[in-house]
Structure formats: C-alpha cells, structure tokens
Write a structure and sequence with these properties.
91 residues; mainly alpha; elongated
C-alpha cells in the first residue's frame, strides 16, 4: 500500500487508466475479430462496412495512446489486403 499522498493519487490515476485502456483494447480486439469474420464470410459489402468501422476503432485507440501508430497501421494494412484479395476473387 502506498504511504504518501502523491503515491495514493498515482494509484488512483493508474487504476483509472488501466480500466480505460482495457476497455479500448477489448473494443479493438472485438472489431478486428468482426472484420476477420466478415472477410472470411466473403460478403463483400458487409466486409467493406465492417473494415471501415474497424479502421475507425484502431485510429481512436492510437489517439488515446493504447496502440502504437505503426501497430495500428500494420493491422489496417493486413485487413485491407484481405479485402482487396476478396474483391479480386469476386471479379
């Protein structure tokens, strides 16, 4: 247990951040999982809308400092490549 007032405040702050970070991280994982499911189901229009929503969630996680910008860019790139492959097969 913390002894000083500043350490107690630090504990309160870090707990609040931990809860917020866990919620954002969970929503990112859920969005990515939904995008992967939509891409594997080969429903083109649904995959496009789901991917757009997932990209928004990833970008928001970057602005909140939960994800590094390059990690989000990598995830967006991989999902977009899957969508482009799906579009290529659909022609």
């Amino acid at each position: 247990m913390a002894n000083t007032r500043s350490a107690l405040k630090r504990m309160r702050q870090s707990e609040k951040r931990r809860v917020r970070n866990a919620a954002v991280r969970s929503s990112v994982r859920t969005a990515v999982k939904g995008a992967r499911a939509a891409l594997s189901a080969t429903a083109l229009e649904e995959a496009r809308t789901t991917l757009a929503r997932t990209i928004q969630v990833l970008d928001k996680a970057v602005t909140k400092g939960i994800l590094h910008k390059n990690a989000a860019a990598r995830r967006k790139s991989r999902l977009t490549r899957q969508l482009n492959a799906l579009v290529g097969r659909g022609r």
